Amino acid sequence: MKRGPVLVGILAVVIVTVSVVVARQRTRHPSGGSFIRPPEVRAPEGVRIRVQVLNATKTRGLARRATMLLRDRGFDVVENGTLTELRDTTLVLDLSGHPDWANRIAQIVAPAKVTARSDSSRYLDIAVVLGATWRPPSQPFYP
After folding, report:
1. pTM listed for this prediction
2. Quick one: average pLDDT of 45-59?
């Protein structure tokens, strides 16, 4: 009996088994259940929410990436920039007394901490200070 065809068959079974295990692991939630993609969090319809995005990390371009993400989700990012003070955790500041809006943005830039802070200028509704723990999603293709 020749060993060649038998080894090829065993190798094929091993490759298929490993592929199935890897595919199942990618579709499993860390809690053990099946992973179901959560609905996309968006700005409420018919409401203009003015947002400022500030990068408080050493990663260049992070505020721009967050700006594009928030605009894709319906938020009006009116300003972005960089802070000299570095942060580890992302902070979402509710400046207009709308915790629902701040919580929506915090879900998009998770993990984030939401804090209410009054702003008498009323120019901004929400300020986002990006920390080093935030990882932007893969960039969409903008031709």
Report:
1. 0.70
2. 96
Report the 10 Å Cβ neighbour count for 96: 19
Cα–Cα distance for residue pair 134/143, rounded to 1 Å: 25
- Give the confidence band of 25 by pLDDT, cuts at 50, 70, 90: low
Helix spans in the chain (H): 3-26, 62-72, 99-108
Helix, strand or coil, per DSSP, at residue 130 = strand
* Cross-strand partners of 91: 113, 129
Distance, in Å, from the CA atom of 102 to the CA atom of 100, rounded to the nearest integer, reads: 5
| CA end-to-end distance (rounded Å), the chain | 59
**Residue 73: per-residue pLDDT:** 94
| Residues written for the chain | 143
